[in-house]
Every structure is written in structure tokens, then in C-alpha cells.
Amino acid sequence: MIGNDVIDIVQSRRESNWQRKGFLEKIFTAEEQLLIANDVHPETMVWLLWSMKEAAYKIYNRQTKIRAYIPQKLVCSMAFQNNSYASGKVSCCGTVYYTQTFIHREYLHTIAVSDPAQWDTVIEIEKKNIAKDPYGIPFLSSDPSPNRQNVSVSNHGRFEKVVGLSA
Fold it and tell me: Where is the 4'-phosphopantetheinyl transferase domain (predicted)?
């Protein structure tokens, strides 16, 4: 399974004051707050962790059909990070999701998969023929089979990303 999240850094700066009282405590665990506090670029770390949670949540939602605001239950850990890329894991309710984040000057794009063997099958898709099931979960509507191709759609500000897994 796959999930993704894109964050427009410029729009986030305009609309979200991550430094306001209570913001970090509401969304991030104590360990995640330490990652933010100790990072050379704390703003980037805030949005990196947030996008990891969002991408993993999209898989969790697809698996469980549960829609809930649970950022503290989505627990991030970093495996690797530099100025342009990060990889890590997100644990939620006993399940682990694997993430890769591409860090650009104007946006972050995180992709999550349920199995690391799926990394070789991740594809970016043009947004056309996308429909949603009764739970609001997107899929390619041009694929009528019961095993239709699931996709993950994310948009924020000036950016939109649609990803799927190739067969």
C-alpha cells in the first residue's frame, strides 16, 4: 500500500505558525519534539515529520477505513537525513510504515509504503481518471478490476503529487 504528502513550504510559512504555544505538543511526541529542537533547520524538521505522519496515515486509513485525527499515535523515527532527502519509519497502532522524503527548496514530498520491498514499484502518476471509493480513498477509475490500482493524492498550495505502485 502507498500514501504520500506534499507540503508547500511558502504556504506553510504564511498559514501555520508552528512556533505558537501548544502547536508542537499537540502534534508531536516528546521524542519528535527533541528532533525538532535539535535540528539545524527546525522548520524543515517540523514539516518533514508532519508529512511522514500524513503519508503513513493515508495507508492506515486505507487499511482500517478509520478516519481520525491521531497525530500523536503516528510516531516517527529517522533512519537517514541530509539537505535533500530523508528516510524513516512511522509506527501506528502496532503497524510500521516506511517513508522517503524528497526535500526541495519550495516543497517537501513524502512517500510511505507498507513494505520496504515496494520501493522499486513506486511510480508518479498524472492526475487523471482518479475516483474515490465510499470511504474517500482514491483509485484509478480506468481500472475496473476488483484489484484496481490504488493511488495516493496529495496537494498543498502550488504542488500536487499522485503516486501509486506499479504491478
Answer: 2-100
